[in-house]
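Colleagues,

For the teaching module next term, I've prepared a clean inverse folding example: a structure given as tokens, and then the sequence designed for it. I'd like students to try predicting residues themselves before seeing the answer, so please don't circulate the second half yet.
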């Protein structure tokens, strides 16, 4: 479809990150996350939660902690789910 444009926003990126993560494609999820930041697409709590959960599921605690610290540094608010993920996957 010539001329058809799709707006790729925070929600679309987050959905793709989640889909790739569920398929075990962590590297691809991180590439999308980095692409978001490079294209100045805002990240949000949900985006970070998905990635932290992915890292936790794979036992990559150091990466999860680094991402959590980045989240706080960028003033992305934490929520109840974030704290749940932290307790279930990281502690």
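(Answer key — instructors only)
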């Amino acid at each position: 479809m010539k001329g058809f444009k799709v707006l790729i926003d925070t929600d679309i990126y987050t959905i793709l990150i989640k889909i790739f993560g569920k398929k075990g494609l962590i590297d691809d999820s991180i590439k999308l996350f980095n692409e978001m930041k490079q294209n100045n697409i805002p990240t949000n709590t949900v985006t970070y939660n998905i990635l932290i959960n992915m890292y936790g599921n794979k036992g990559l605690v150091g990466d999860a902690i680094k991402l959590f610290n980045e989240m706080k540094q960028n003033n992305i608010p934490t929520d109840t789910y974030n704290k749940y993920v932290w307790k279930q996957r990281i502690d």
